[in-house]
Design brief:
A hairpin with a 2-residue loop joins strand 8 and strand 9. The protein is of the alpha/beta class. The protein folds into two domains: 207 residues, 3-Layer(aba) Sandwich (Rossmann fold), CATH 3.40.50; 72 residues, ACT domain (Alpha-Beta Plaits). The radius of gyration is 24 Å and the shape is elongated. The structure holds adenosine-5'-triphosphate (ATP). The site of adenosine-5'-triphosphate has 11 residues, from strand 2 and helix 1.
Length: 307
């Protein structure tokens, strides 16, 4: 879909040789920190920007050159805007539906996305979350083959978030291909068949959420104790565990160890407890989640605490 894409704003390189693919009839999540180049990439796929380097193909077509052929086949939910400020919500949705040959049922979308209460409200008076839901409805109403959704649930309340997830899962079952960006790792973990993690305009990892989180042998061990740790506990445990393991004190009573999930590590932790006179209340071992993987791959030096 995107091959070696380069996009600049003046001197600033926003997308730096990015290549990513999207399998049909799946949900693909493009993740990355603020400013990673996700929206720029999506806007290029949607035909709003011309690639400055590399190529972009969407449903086999060039999004700029073949825009007229592509438009009826794709749905686009922008991060903001997309409707006239004075138009009423449901009126706008009906208008968009009439532009398509085989639209979805407008009332069904209004109900599923909870737009009934604000259907008669002018767009500019809708709350952020209502504008968001209307934007999603407008992207879906034309029964697109492929839909781009930029942060579909940003700022939505938990119930509406779930309704959006269910709707996206349903349209995937109906054969629609979904490309979404999100900052919610639980959303990507729940919805995405495949995840691309982008940082500073470059691809840093790809895979299913399971592949990305279970790919390695690294796990998180959390040790909670009954009395506050004595001074010097984390460095002493880190020295006992050796290279390839990180120890972070979470609070007075708990430590987090990130490292190999093997019997040797667990053995060292319990011997250290014995030697240090520390009484564990709990010792839990968990696989890393997508957020741990994301942070490992994208953590920026400038966000590191001062030394
Ligand atoms: P976010 O998660 O915050 O939405 P993003 O990954 O979508 O970020 P982009 O919006 O694609 O990132 O921006 C990539 C980089 O390009 C950022 O550094 C941004 O400041 C810059 N940028 C984006 N649009 C413009 C523009 N119109 N003019 C100048 N710079 C821009």
């Amino acid at each position: 879909m995107v091959d070696g894409l380069v996009m600049r704003y003046g001197d600033k390189v926003a997308v730096d040789g990015l290549s990513l693919d999207v399998a049909p009839h799946t949900i693909t999540a493009v993740l990355g920190p603020n400013g990673a180049g996700k929206t720029t990439t999506l806007e290029t796929c949607e035909g709003y920007r011309r690639p400055q380097g590399g190529t972009v193909r969407v449903l086999g077509l060039d999004p700029v050159r073949d825009r007229r052929a592509l438009l009826p086949r794709i749905g686009v939910m922008l991060q903001s805007g997309g409707a006239w400020s004075g138009v009423r919500a449901v009126e706008m949705l009906r208008h968009v539906s009439r532009l398509h040959a085989h639209p979805l049922d407008v009332s069904m979308l209004v109900e599923r996305l909870g737009l009934g209460d604000c259907g008669g409200t002018p767009y500019r008076r809708l709350s952020g979350g209502q504008q968001q839901r209307l934007g999603l409805a407008m992207a879906l109403v034309g029964r697109p083959e492929l839909v781009f959704v930029d942060e579909p649930t940003a700022g939505l309340d938990p119930a509406v978030r779930r309704a959006v997830w269910e709707l996206l899962e349903e349209i995937r079952s109906d054969g629609v291909t979904v490309v979404l960006t999100t900052h919610y790792m639980d959303e990507a973990e729940r919805l995405a068949d495949r995840v691309h993690i982008v940082d500073r305009g470059q691809l840093v990892a790809s895979g299913s959420p399971l592949e990305l989180t279970r790919g390695g042998t690294v796990a998180t061990i959390r040790l909670v104790v009954t009395e506050p740790f004595p001074p010097g506990a984390p460095p002493s445990l880190a020295a006992t565990l050796g290279e390839g393991t990180e120890v972070a004190q979470l609070d007075a009573l708990s430590l987090q160890i990130t490292g190999p999930a093997d019997p040797s590590t667990l053995g060292k932790v319990s011997r250290w407890c014995e030697e240090f006179g520390v009484v564990p209340e709990s010792l839990t071992l968990g696989q890393r989640n997508l957020e741990d993987v994301f942070l490992d791959l994208t953590r920026r030096e400038q966000l590191a605490p001062p030394a």
